[in-house]
Design goal:
The complex is a heterodimer.
Chain A (H helix, E strand, L loop, with lengths): L1 H9 L5 H8 L3 H13 L12 H4 L4 E9 L8 H8 L4 E6 L6 E7 L2 H12 L5 E8 L5 E2 L2 E2 L15
Antiparallel strand pairs in A: 1-3, 1-4, 2-3, 5-6
Helix pairs in contact in A: 2-3
Chain B lengths: L1 H8 L8 H5 L4 H10 L5 E2 L11 H12 L12 H15 L9 E4 L1 H13 L5 E6 L4 H8 L3 E6 L10 H5 L6 E6 L12 H14 L2 E5 L24 E6 L12 E4 L2 H14 L5 H13 L1 H24 L12 E2 L10 H12 L1 E2 L1 E2 L11 E4 L4 H17 L1
Parallel strand pairs in B: 1-10, 3-4, 3-5, 5-6, 6-7
Antiparallel strand pairs in B: 2-8, 7-8, 9-12, 11-12
The chains are: A alpha+beta, B alpha/beta.
């Protein structure tokens, strides 16, 4: 079953028939497993990884370190929820170390991000401090590299 | 003047040894030249992994250069590498080799094969090999002054050499049996039963086995039988292998031979006069591969297996029947139903649909009626190649 998800994680467009052949299972069974996983929230969504810089239409991104005060009974979860539900927040992680929340924020321009930080994030009562790092260049995301040319085409066309 | 010119270029026949002059070039060569002039080809003709060497192994190679490991190593190879290899062979196949006396690090398993032939063959000695087989087997035997004795293998026995067929060809001149399973070009894997039968024969006729196990790690739903691990076979077997296929390290040229001490001593004699030692950075990378590369092997095997199932199923669907290859990364479908011979099929497929496969005859006369399709290429490539092959077969 895990193998089916691994294949989809690599290529969300693999069809049940293709997957069935690859894992040597009946198509119906594969379809059933995928449907069930979609229902159970194991498969959340099918997305494409877009190389936006190539289109020269990249948004502005910032990685923000947030220190927050945990609350009795709910720990970091309640305040984290308040933060990550803002549409500007692209991803959010609770981390160990010198700060607590690591969030990736996306905006059309710097203005949009700074107003999110100044007007929405920093004023929250449990937020102690924020440090904003604007993203300069992305090298790798979801296991895919952006700048290194594909490494597969260096073989001779025919070898023994 | 014309004479001087031909002498300088070596074109005058007698300047080249007769052995080399009469040795046919690899059957793959002709296709290579044809391919070189074409574009947009999907090649299923490549006999090497499409994975790049895992990063941590490459990084170990880079580190060795940074640290100045640029000198010769001991003839036999770095002691750490031989030590790691001994425990690797013990761990995987339960066969024990003394790291200092029974392992030689070579410049790819190809060097190993050449060394073995030169070390054991006296003029006229016969070496029994399966057919079809890897292109270098008969050539290396001939170059060492021996005579290759071809034993036909067929679909009926999943292209595994039969002990009875070997026995029928044993003569006074028989020196050794050279086998290579999992097999290039067929993908055949030798079962325990088949290996045992050969082991019996080897004992009975007091023979030597050379076992090329370069594809040992690439098996799917089958267990690799390491020939020297069979009872009584270690002292009668010379094991040849390397890192090219298991760890996607073809370009590093790093392999090894494991055998009884007196064989290794003989091989080392030739090795020290011809190669001195295997590339040092490749040895350093190989140590890293053995220490931390197991999960890479597993990942690659899993990926190959998915492609293998896909390719074999599609080949059968489009009317090119294919037995289930349980090892290496090759499928060996029959093209007899198309009415063409192997070369015709491969050439027309290349010119009409721009898909490259290797005619079975490149691997010996028994490859007639088959082509070798390698699935060490991306799944979209395999899908597209098979779409084109389907169209090609239906047109005929």
């Amino acid at each position: 079953m895990k193998e089916i998800f691994e294949i989809l994680e690599q290529n969300a467009r693999a069809t049940p028939a293709q997957i069935a052949t690859m894992v040597d299972k009946p198509v119906r069974e594969v379809e059933k497993i995928i449907r069930q996983a979609e229902k159970d929230g194991i498969i959340l969504k099918y997305k494409a990884i877009i190389n936006w810089p190539k289109l020269r239409k990249e948004d502005i991104w910032a990685l923000i370190e947030v220190r927050i005060t945990p609350q009795r009974g709910v720990g970091f979860d309640a305040i984290s929820e308040r933060i990550y539900q803002f549409p500007e927040v692209y991803s959010a992680y609770l981390v160990s170390g010198t700060y607590d929340l690591s969030i990736l924020v996306r905006g059309k321009n710097m203005q949009e991000i700074s107003s999110f930080v100044a007007e929405k994030l920093a004023p929250l009562e449990q937020v102690q401090s924020v440090i904003t790092h604007f993203l300069l260049k992305r090298y790798k995301e979801y296991g895919e590299t952006f700048h290194i040319p594909k490494e597969t085409n260096r073989r001779l066309p025919i070898t023994p | 003047m014309p004479n001087t010119k031909s002498a300088a270029t070596g074109a005058r026949h007698n300047l080249i040894s007769q052995k080399v002059a009469t040795l046919p070039p690899s059957g793959i060569r002709k296709f290579f030249d044809l391919l070189a002039s074409m574009e947009d080809i999907i090649s299923l003709g490549i006999g090497e992994p499409d994975f790049v060497t895992p990063w941590h192994i490459r990084e170990a190679g880079i580190y060795s250069l940074e640290k100045g490991y640029t000198m010769y190593t001991s003839n036999s190879g770095m002691p750490e590498l031989r030590q790691e290899l001994a425990s690797y062979l013990e761990r995987h196949y339960g066969v024990n080799y003394h790291p200092e006396q029974e392992i030689l690090i070579t410049t790819g398993s190809s060097e190993g094969l050449d060394l073995v032939m030169r070390a054991i063959i006296n003029p006229g000695d016969e070496v029994i090999i399966p057919n079809p087989c890897y292109v270098a087997y008969p050539a290396d035997i001939i170059l060492a002054g021996g005579v290759p004795i071809l034993v036909p293998t067929d679909e009926e026995n999943n292209f595994v050499i039969r002990a009875t067929d070997i026995e029928a060809r044993i003569t006074k001149q028989t020196k050794a049996i050279l086998i290579g399973y999992p097999a290039n070009p067929t993908g055949a894997v030798m079962s325990k039963r088949e290996a045992d039968a050969i082991a019996q024969l080897v004992k009975k006729h007091d023979l030597l086995v050379i076992s090329d196990e370069i594809y040992a790690r690439l098996v799917y739903g089958a267990q690799h039988i390491c020939f020297p691990s069979l009872p009584g076979m270690k002292k009668r077997t010379i094991l040849i292998s390397g890192f090219s296929k298991s760890h996607a390290m073809t370009g590093w040229r790093i392999g090894y031979v494991a055998a009884d001490r007196h064989f290794i001593q003989a091989l080392t004699k030739i090795h020290q006069y011809t190669m001195l030692s295997a590339p040092t950075m490749a040895q350093m990378a190989a140590i890293e591969a053995l220490r931390n590369g197991e999960s890479d092997v597993e990942k690659m095997v899993q990926e190959y297996n998915r492609r293998r199932r896909f390719m074999v199923k599609r080949l059968n669907e489009i009317g090119l029947p294919c037995f289930e290859p349980k090892g290496a990364f090759f499928a060996f479908p029959s093209i007899k139903g198309t009415g063409m011979n192997s070369e015709e099929f491969a050439e027309k497929l290349l010119l009409e649909e721009k898909v490259a496969v290797v005619p079975g005859t490149a691997f010996g006369p028994c490859g007639e009626g088959f082509v070798r399709c390698c699935y060490a290429t991306s799944l979209p490539n395999i899908e597209e190649a098979l779409r084109r092959m389907d169209r090609f077969v239906r047109k005929k």
